[in-house]
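Notebook B, p. 112. Complex prediction, attempt 2.
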Amino acid sequence: MGRNAIVGQSGGPTSVINASLAGVLQACQMRGADTVYGMVHGIAGLLEENVIDLGAKIGSSLEIELLKRTPSSYLGSCRYKLPKATDKPEVYEKLFKILEKLDIGYFFYIGGNDSMDTIMQLSDYAAQIGSDIRFMGVPKTIDNDLMCTDHTPGYGSAAKYVAMVMKEIVRDATVYGTKYVTIVEIMGRNAGWLTAAAALARGEDCEGVNLICMPEIPFHVDRFLTKVETMQKESSSVVIAVSEGVKLADGRYVCELADDVHAVDSFGHKSLTGTARFLSNTVARNMDTKTRSIELSTLQRCAAHMTSRTDITEAYQVGGAAAKAAFEGHTGMMVALKRISNDPYQCTTELVDVHKVANFEKKVPLDWINDYRTDMKPEFLRYARPLIQAELTPVYIEGLPRHIYMR
Amino acid sequence: MGRNAIVGQSGGPTSVINASLAGVLQACQMRGADTVYGMVHGIAGLLEENVIDLGAKIGSSLEIELLKRTPSSYLGSCRYKLPKATDKPEVYEKLFKILEKLDIGYFFYIGGNDSMDTIMQLSDYAAQIGSDIRFMGVPKTIDNDLMCTDHTPGYGSAAKYVAMVMKEIVRDATVYGTKYVTIVEIMGRNAGWLTAAAALARGEDCEGVNLICMPEIPFHVDRFLTKVETMQKESSSVVIAVSEGVKLADGRYVCELADDVHAVDSFGHKSLTGTARFLSNTVARNMDTKTRSIELSTLQRCAAHMTSRTDITEAYQVGGAAAKAAFEGHTGMMVALKRISNDPYQCTTELVDVHKVANFEKKVPLDWINDYRTDMKPEFLRYARPLIQAELTPVYIEGLPRHIYMR
């Protein structure tokens, strides 16, 4: 059994993934790990032995606090897909040789579906060769699409950002009192969790968004135009939240209707962009109104200046819980969040078999969407509202939030 | 001399224009105005007698605080261009009849270049017909392009937002360690003040942006590509800040090189959008790198959750100073900000003849841009840094910043 721990970050960045890194680091140190290594650019970096002594880089409690407030992945990330051990055993042999050389006993990977696949493959291989290295998954994704967990760290902060920005956009869009359709594109290729968060904007001080379009509901361009036209009779400014991944009934992405070229990444994911622009152009061509499209783009996943303190705390906790579990002998598991009570909101962690998580996607329940398919029901609001509560004040230096980065 | 005051907001929204509204309202009340009216949708609304009793709507000190934290224009805005009095005297006759009916003695208009034109036309007409109504301009624009004032309220907060978001984008863009060119489009059609603020991102905790392109410097697509290629040899992630209004040497906007249709508004301004997208596509076609374009869009002008307290305070002050000046007998003037000292930063207000402001535009001095035309010199940083200092904490209710809006 090795005496050191190693941790990596994978997949798309979030504004709280570094809080999980802090949680893993501190819990491993507390439980007696000699050295806590960090993989630079995830498993792809590890394969090139690109590792750092994380504990030496992040030594002080001030650095831990800055790490919690720094967006993106401190260690860097990758989108490397581990091949199957049966297909390419040499990759696994190489990896385990590197882990042995580093005297690793505990391996942590912070990420989403694809990262949980990595943990699954590695823990399965370890069992097969009789390695006692413990492999733990730490959930993270703004998409909130992981199975077996009430929600994922990263979602609460991104949801808070979306709700807040929608409030600001609604105010901005009403300013001229003229006919105006604003279409806001939000991340989410197959699940509409983050787009649904736009529903949180409505309240005593905001009219809210008029229409929410998610991948869970097949998109019909004609029905969409009819809805928008009807809505604009009620209020001249119509604000629409749309997932980048809304799809037609035949399965094609709406953004594929535009003329842009679409690339495919190493996981086979199509690059989705231009959904809002396409819809905004379509509205402009068919209706007598001004239009604007806004892509929240990467801003929604790296807005560390405006995180949910609930989310940051939970991100830190799942990191710590993963370390605890590994040191207590668990492997091949992911730490999940389990909601114990909603009012008052209480949440704890539990362990789930990573096989039940890897490569699955959790969609928004259809019965949380209203009958007109325009808005979220109160069930969703009750689910999401606790996750955006409270703030973590940035450390401001000379007027700007202070980060920490690896040199 | 009428006993009431009236105030309007015009042009594009900012996140601090309502702080100026609060300043006008409270100063007028303190100086004994009977009623402080608000024009709904600016001068266009006034022409339809669409006014409200502003003091009755915003009665409590809590409402004043919420108003300071609400983005966009509480009263609504317009882009109505007042015709010349010689061309359409009937418009002026109608306006002054309405003002007389409302018993107005003091008229305030919060806005940019075009709004100062309105104040100029109205005060000139008043002088001509012997009206004693006092007309005062209150500056506001994120563009910072007004003459005779050190800077404009609205700029500091938008600059802070740009600098902060660029820091977050720089972190996000380095995450994979792969070749990546991110092009961020920032508002500013003729002046690059706001884009220049991207230079504030660089510091102990951030590599900063690699290239800043502003309308002041003629844009050459070929030279741009060469620069980006050279920069990517130094660092795989290249982040570029570009003004929506960058122009070729022949005066055409760069975004006109794209295929999109471009509309023209009632001031004859072309709709500029797609500059970053065009450049990002051009880089993708010519270089072996991933690219991404991000438009900060309206987010940069309505980010009330992240304002500069310096800016909010000054926005409130110029509103108050305008009321003071009007009650003391001034007319046809704009309140300007005058920097007394830079270290420590001290700023006061003064009055300038609105004829010197209306319809002019202040550009970024060329000697504040470095010789390579890639970055800002320290002179700019010394100018801009004080304007982004300190924060105004939002009033959070259930996890979201609280606003106030007119029903």
